[in-house]
Amino acid sequence: MEKMIEKFYKSLGKGKIYGTKCKGCGEFAFPPKAGCKKCGAHKMKWQQISGEGTLHLYSSGNLPPMKFAKYHPYAYGCVELKEGPCFFTQIEGVDVSSVEEIEKENEKLPRKAKAKVKKMAGMNIVVFKVVKSQAKKKSKKKSKK
Ligand SMILES: [Zn+2]
User: Fold this and answer.
1) Which among 27, 50, 96, 135 is placed 20 to 30 Å from 35, CA to CA?
2) What is the distance in angstroms between the CA of the first residue and the CA of the last residue of the chain?
3) What is the mean pLDDT of residues 80-108?
4) CA of residue 29 to ligand 1 center, whole Å
């Protein structure tokens, strides 16, 4: 298992994000796992994730781990990868300035998000950035009252 973690982080350093896919049933795991949670097989192969996901909910990181404290506040949420698994991580591109803003933005979810590798506290971590939806530009023009 430690070898897997090592490989995972080494790949992140190169900007590549890997998960594992079960050779038995095809179940995808992210972060990489040594065994399949679906069929119990231990034959997993490495597979790069597409990076596409859907943000389902987020909140602000109220209790960040100490080493991340200087980045506080940041958004922390649940992203469903295109490949299947849900992943909890830091979310970029959403508002965490107040509880009200967080609630408002959560109402707009789910939204598309894209994975990227970010260096934080000297570590490479996988974060997701929400994709600005350009399709439906609701008439948000500042109509002066
Ligand atoms: Zn399996």
Assistant:
1) 50
2) 60
3) 94
4) 10
Give the contacts of 126 (CB within 8 A, at least 6 positions apart).
12, 17, 31, 87, 89, 115, 116, 117, 118
Query: How many A from CA of 20 to the centre of ligand 1?
Result: 10
Ligand 1 center from residue 61 Cα (angstroms): 33
Q: Residue 40 Cα, ligand 1 centroid: separation in angstroms? A: 6
- How many Å separate Cα 108 from the centre of its chain? 17
Determine the distance separating the centroid of ligand 1 and the alpha carbon of 4, expressed in angstroms. Answer: 17
> Ligand 1 mean position to 35 CA, how many Å?
8
pLDDT band at 132 (very low <50, low <70, confident <90, very high): confident
pTM for the full predicted model = 0.83
